[in-house]
Amino acid sequence: MDESSNEMAEEKKSEDIPTPPDHFLEIVLATKENTESVGWLITDDEEVIKKEEEIGIPFYSTVSEGANFTHADWKDQACVRQARIEWRDDNRVSWLERHMEMTQGFICVGETPGLFVLGEPTHERVDLTDDQRQFPDFEKMKAYIIPGGCGIIIKKGTWHDFPVSVGPTLTTFIVNTKEVIDALTSMEEPAPMNFGDCYKIRCSDVYDDVTLRFPDPRPFIEKLGLTDTVKRRSIKPKSERADTSSPSVSKEVKTYGNRVKRVEVGNWGRDRSDSVWVVPVLNVESFDPDAYGPSVQPHLNKVQPEVANRGWRDYGNKRGLSRIRSLLRRHQIPCTAVVSSDLVDVPEVANQLRNFQEEDGWEIGAHGANNSNGGHAGLSAEEERTKIATCLDRLGAVFGGNNPTTWLTPGFSVTKQTASLLMDEGVESLLDFVDDDAPFGLIDENSDNTFVEPPVVCIPYSMETNDFSLVLTRGLSPREYAAALESHVLQLADEARDSDKPRVVCFGLHTFVAGAPASVYELDKVLAKLRSASNIKWATAKEVTAAVRHGKGGASREASIPAISRESALPRPSKGVLRLKAEPCETLEVNMNRVGLILIDFQVDFMVPGGFGEQLGNDVSTLRRAIEPTQRLLAAARKAGLTIIHTREGHRRDLSDLTALKAGDGSTIGSKGPYGRILVRGEAGHDIIAELKPLESEIVVDKPGKGAFYQTDLDVILKNTGIDTLLVCGVTTEVCVHTTVREANDRGIRCIVLEDCTASYFPEFHKVGISMISAQGGIFGQVSNAASVIDGLNNAMQSV
């Protein structure tokens, strides 16, 4: 095929005819694996010549040749030419051709890559009719980026266009036949042909309902670093080559954008060197209903409006969003939601997110205007600046009044100026780069490399833990997807033990992928496992950035809440002594910094009229008497900045943590009750009552047994927060409260049980239970009441 004016082809069509909707090809970096169906990639890969196909040449011991490519004998009339290809503004694919008796070969000369539109052969497809085999299948066609110095031998029947420049002038080495050259050059103007071995079609003649296009390749190759001005294969003598042993500033600028350079952060995690920080990032996206977007059935993208793919994405925001919220809330996991600003015009979505922000402490980040219309690709610096500022302002006006400080560019359409523009707009956490598993900084290129608080912290948004990549691109099942997340985190945890810094990984979630029922079901199991690990910390992007800037993992091991919880946002007093009357002591004095409040099992199933407890014949009013004094105590503890821990008794949804003994005693655990399945996590009955609802910053421990230490990480929490004294409230006195207090006593933790903040269905049991605690000189604890503790807290704060 000659380089005749393909871009002029469409001029033959009347300008009065409306342009059909666009169908953009997927753009990918060519590899041996993804080009197998269309040709043979020519690279310098050592394995490109298979050992079994080697041809030894006696004259040259240093040379190995591979077997001849199938269909590459060139009909005994090979024609070898060189072509120069300039950049073209028109990204339409106007012409496609195929050859059935021979193939063509293209090699990119020098360092400049090229774009090759290649479609799988259709002539032997058994699923097509005879007529359909005469035309290409757009769904089996891609825009391949082939690096400079590499090339491809296309297979018989492969549909292809002439190579396209990706910006710089492209020189190609072309091998085909004289027959094809003669056929192409004999035409006075472009037109379809079926001459000899050259069958050429005009795309608009075949598909009048769609315009085939390839994406702008420049952002893609820029991100891959394929246009680096430092030549990868310099022909200069080694002594004259530039030293590339360490990244140069120009390399960093090319990788991360103009005006910025990468800096490594200090030992921000030296106190948590054995940990992995996991950041769930939920993409809440808006799509233009008349534009193309991610597809569950890509072939349906040929027609617009198209209800299946559009509805699939809408379903994510209608159902998947709330489903993921419930999943994360069940495991007390924080979330950064990166949101399309167009969604501020969709009240049912915006209102949900605002509630999640207020009730669960979700961080709201920015994800551009929408995930249609090409994102930021091709925008001028001023256009992109306006787009970024508008997005941040719109989200800030709806979600709390402050503009988001976390950003993910839609569709990874990062330009050379994106990072610097975001820096100018006050963005602090950037999720656009995937080339590490530790955070790093971006600073102005003129700044000192020792800058300790970079204006922008890049948090790796790993493709290996992205639901879109794993489920839609790689085709993993929901179970395989969830298992991949677990394996990734556990491997990083192993590596972190030998490092002076923790690893960081984002779980990239989409409402229409991770929010599907099967995905949530499998994620629930994996999150439960990861959530119980003491060396895994869950955080928002904003929290990672704050930890990096402060030079350590949020707090030291001596005073931090481990992976099972977020750090408390409430101030803790730096000194002070809590003095109170606690039987059998006349006056008890304890260090305020080492006191925590624990509220045991104030749950709907146990305490709400008409609930499970009452259905068993119990009088729940006896338990509810403890609510009012506990409310007063909780308010005072929050004001004093105590660490506050809530517990809930309950079981996994599959009841795999329910012992045979507990299940076999006539228990109805797991059966349907007034507030969902009884004592099952995630059900309404399992929740803590509204009167004592935990704040987002407070710790919630889910326990499968009666004691709060059994099969939980409560012991780790207390050690890492330095707590050695617990103020104990909860129900029931003789069962879960008693069991927890006894377990704590064996671990060297003092328990002060508040008589009026604990209760039993049976008043006599409560009375005896309280007496047993303080008997014999306080055999396993002391007893006080809400009023005494509240007075003590107030006095301690006043003395500081």
Automatic annotation (TrEMBL):
GO MF entry, a single one: ureidoglycolate lyase activity
UniProt GO BP: allantoin catabolic process; carbohydrate metabolic process; purine nucleobase metabolic process
InterPro entries named among the record's database cross-references: Glyco_hydro/deAcase_b/a-brl, Isochorismatase-like_dom, Isochorismatase-like_hydrls, Isochorismatase-like_sf, NODB_dom, RmlC_Cupin_sf, Ureidogly_lyase, Ureidoglycolate_lyase_dom_sf
Hydrolase recorded as keyword: yes
Catalytic activity: (S)-ureidoglycolate = urea + glyoxylate
Region (Disordered): 1-21, 232-253
Signal sequence extent: none
Isochorismatase-like domain location: 597-779
Organism: Odontella aurita
CDD domains, sorted: cysteine_hydrolases
Family affiliation: Belongs to the isochorismatase family.
Protein name: Isochorismatase-like domain-containing protein
Subunit structure comment from the entry: Homodimer.
